[in-house]
Amino acid sequence: MNRFMTSILALVLAVGTGAAISPARANVMTFTGMPTNFFSGSYTEDGITLTDLNGYMAGSTYYYPGGNPGEYFDTTNYYGAPLRLTLANGGLFDLTSIDLRSFCCGPASETFTGHRANGSTVTITLSAPYVLSWVTGTFGSSWTDLTEVDWGDTDVALDNVVLDPAPPVPEPASLAVLGTALAGFGLLRRRKRKGA
Question: What is each CA distance from 43 to 29, 35, 126, in whole angstroms?
Answer without folding.
Answer: 10, 9, 22
